[in-house]
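haha ok so turns out i had the wrong file open the whole time. this is the CORRECT one, sorry everyone. sequence first:
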Amino acid sequence: MNSLLTADSGARLDRLPISSFHRRIMLLIGTGMFFDGFDIYVAATVLGATLKSGFSTMGQNAQFMSVTFVGMMLGSFMTGFLGDRYGRRFTYQANLAIFGLAAIASAFAPSMTVLTLLRFIMGVGLGAENVVGYSTMTEFVPPGARGNWLGGMNVIVVSGLPVAALLGTLIIPLFGWRAMFALGGLGALVVWYLRKALPESPRWLESVGRTAEAEALLQSIESEVSQQHGSLVPPVPRSSAPPSASLGSLVQSGTVASHDRRSHDSDRDEHFNLRVRDLAALLLRTGGAKHRHLLPLLVHYVARRATRVGHRSLRCRLLGAQAHDRRGVPAHHCARRHLSVHPSAGGFDHDRLLADHSHLYPGRHALCDLHS
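then structure:
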């Protein structure tokens, strides 16, 4: 039992096959996302009716649209921090309640100013729901099916546009534009009630130290899945970074990502330098007029290198080659550098060099016959 308490929730969830549990998550999250899309796109039908009836002006309609997206921006920004602090379940329930109640209140707005204010509040919930809906699906759906399921979720969201347009054509002439807000708000609140059965994310529970709750929830999920698919494969534990609710985490994560990109580029450039030296060593070793056709290949590499990093960077790297050894270059790269600097050393891999570079030279068949 103790080993289970310390198991990685992510690894245990990611190795589960698709089952009724995942489809239930998709249904409840997707339904809420549909009403999110519906309430976003309902403005296209409602504003035309408010303008025609004299309830609003063109300027007020523009303000209505603007505050919608300002609210969505703020909602999408805040929901990540709220989700890390209070849990995923809290955020996706709060989002539905916010834009559901604001939509119903919009149906009774006495003026366009009040409607615009309510639309801003609605936008906060709409923007947050967009973010938390996709992230919740990501935490439960295994990686092998995640792309397809998130694509399906996006289809559900954008389907709110044609549905809102069709219902607006049918409902507004009979009941007025206020009925559209009431319809979207009531639908969101119904989904809010149904979503009370959705579980909290085990990943989040474990990340905040509530391991016992995460373990109980994981056992329940695994039991349901195993009833449909039989015994489950053992998880492969992985380490994960704990969530952070501070704004500084955005800068820190960007710094780490930038460092990772620089390290990746450095390794890639180092590999390129080593291959150029291998080619030069081959020319020195084999020498002779009959191998002059290898010179365009070397020129091609040098030109490509100069184009990518500039002449100054190229000169610095050629003069400071020893500095690369302190950046974690793989051992076989260092060994190949030794061979390229000392071409007379034994074991120089001519065949691999030709196989790696022959596609860059039109006369590659001649390269393959070099050692025949």
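The chain has a mean pLDDT of 76.
again sry for the mixup
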